[in-house]
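Protein 1 of 2
SEQ + STRUCT:
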Amino acid sequence: MQKNHTEVWEKCLRNIRLNVNNQSYKTWFEPIRPVRLDEKVFTLLVPNKFFYEWLEEHYIGLLKSTIRQEVGEKVRLEYQILVNDNPENNQPLPNKPAETKETPDFSNANDIKNPFVIPGIKKWSVEAKLNSLYNFGNYIEGDCNRLARSAGLAIAKKPGLTSFNPLVLYGDVGLGKTHLAHAIGNEVQLKFPGKVVLYVTSDSFTNQLIQSIRNGGVNDFVNFYQHIDLLIVDDIQFLANKTKTQEIFFHIFNQLHQGGKQIVLTSDRPPRDLDGMEERLISRFKWGLSADLQAPDLETRMAILEHKMIKEGVGIPQNVIEFICYNIKNNIRELEGVLNLLMAQASLNRREIDVDLAREVIKNFVSEINKEITVENIQKLVADHLKVPVETLFGKTRKRSIVIARQLSMYLAKTMTDNSLKNIGEVFGGRDHSTVIYSIKTVQDLMETDTYFKETVIELEKKIKNSLRET
């Protein structure tokens, strides 16, 4: 009997989710769509060539083993790469031949008016407006930004010659969009000193255009921008409902793209959600790669903080670092702000940096300080609820009531904490990660078939969350 490709992929996703963290799952597996399944081939649709190459490099073993588990050894995996929204046109993209680019002729550059210089200065030059402190060296990589960072590095090696043109970096405030955009610009300047790089905010672009309209210099304005090799526009969403600005930007975009110049845009939302933007612009924003920057996980937040500590030459106890990172979850700027204020308070008030001082500082950034959910807390609450001794969860007894409590604790530890499968296994008497995976799957299956068991899980989840509010 032929299996349904959608149902097979859903089962594969359930297994994959147990083996990767939540951010990796959302970034690399949620966008995949099953296309077809026959006796020999399982075909998956991926957003672009880079996405396919990343899967092949980092997750091919997991993909193949999961698919074989569901459909057998004889079925091989194939990909289709999304060309446009019409499924009939989706096909593997051919490799782009390398283009030979000549350096633009600026022999008549004195005739081009630069909106960044004072009228009357004859020499044509462009200040890139880049922050040299923002580079790839201090842009910490994690699952939350790996796609965007990798695409940025690829662009810096071959600006205008990759399929990531434009590159749209989107995400909430304080997640590193501007840092990454500047890092791309700085890297291009370093590798290609002859290329003209420009960073501009959408508000500055609009104000320059308004000034050009007043002075009758719109053609000079457009001519200037068409000579940029790498144009970085920050906060593109602020062009919404500015009809004339969008029209001019549309023509500049087309000229740059057709000329093989690189465009990098940042936004607080994906292109499809840019209300007040002309459809023809949104369509062009989708030509390249849209990369989502998500909130960093606990490990990445700690790595960011430790990197900044090394840079500042300060030492902070590990428990203080963990406390800060657990409470500042969604904004890297706030994370660095807490560290700066913590160091200032310790220096000015001659206080030791400890959790108490960190708690005082964090109150300036968050309204409620979180209390950490730990595997140990979960073990105790589950043991109390199911009336089994907590120490039996670490042992080897196969008594059913103990096994259920142990498996349920492992499931809650995975779903309610940032711990890896390996770490969870170690806390349960040094068990292997495959045992944790089996326990999680057992609980999931029981929740689908046993209503009373599902209610028990929900009740325990509430108990664990309520325990955080207790002082």
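Protein 2 of 2
SEQ + STRUCT:
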Amino acid sequence: MPTSEEVRGLMAAGESMTVEFKESFGKEAIETVGAFSNTRGGTVLIGVTDQGLVVGCTPSGETLREWANRIGQNSEPRVIPTLSKVDVDGAAIVAIEVQQYPMRPVAIQRRDYRRVDRSNIPMTAGEIAELHLRSRGMSWDLQPAFGATFVDLDEAAIREYIRRANEVGRRRIRDLETIEEVLEKLSLAAGEMPTWAAVLLFGKSPQQHLSQASVHCGVFRNDLNIIDDLMIAGRLPDQIEDTMDFIRRSTPVRFEMTGDATRAQTWQYPLIAIREAVVNAICHRDYSIQSHTEIRIHEDRLEVWSPGGLPQGITLPDLQRPHRSVLRNLGIAAVFYDLELIEKWGSGVLRMQEACREAGMPPPAFSEDQGLLVTFRSTVTDPETLRAMGLNERQIGIVHAVREQTSITNNDVRKKFGVSKRQATEDLAALEERQIIERKGTTGRGTRYVLKGAEGAVKGQ
């Protein structure tokens, strides 16, 4: 039973993924119980407005039993919450505490809900199936690959995995073990059939069995003008290397003399961060969806899109802080971990952010758009980001002018925006300080400004 002080703390923090306010008990409160059961658990406070104001309620002991019965009768499997009456500033509030249900999903009047931020969202058929498997310690990729046999697996690829796994040291596999024994230990065999993970990781031709298991790469001059296009197929570990090869030859790289015999390379985007995003997309995407993983390279950004969005149990805000690793594809992730392609500590996003910071770039942006979209920008040019950095509309206009004209001078700023020399100098200095533009040329009339990192770059080899 929560104390008055604990309830005040919940009210002060406001509604969230695990807290909901309701003025009265009814259908919406029961739906929230179902959403909490399917997500992380939570507390529904009855007698509190959406704004967190106490209006109170007058439940008796019989009322609480009736509410608990209504929740149980409307949920399948039956949810048994804890209901407590708590006095807050002289008013009675009912706290309905719900734990994450062990065997999910829980349906409320035959509809399944999940909690996203402060809302209850009806689940799709795919989300229901994924949650059903996850709550039983299973995943889609560990299901039998109907239509495939062990003959469809490449023994040489499996032997190479065994060699590399032993070399890395994260899994010890004896040389005397048969292929069948290895697959059994990895849960990649389902009776007389390989699993989908086995086909995708070790298949001779994985796309014959799952055509969507490819990476579609493109280089765009604009949204309609495609100047390079490649579909990458094959086994998943090989897709990573082939995708990175495409990115390297399709993005600019600068060569700088270091004084040694070699030249230092500075890529438009930090390859460590890009590789992390590519690995995550290939490892964690939803392979049951009829869409390819996509790499889109534009002049000012690189996008990595993976079908299926984030795995259930993790949210976009979670990505911005240390978090537990949540795996959609248990079989694929286990092999990727053995090959040192991923970690199991939920640290991949933080490594991407750090690599971008070290390169003087903005951190990658994450959004859910019919899947998970990771966007890298070599320079900050979109208005919303610039405003968030504290720039005014004139300074944003200067950034766009630099982008359109390739470079700009102090005199150009004065003429275009009708400001004094001093104001133009201050605006350019503000943009330079934020590492959005950089100065080129000598002091005075020979000085011009370009987007940071835009000059001295050639296409990668």
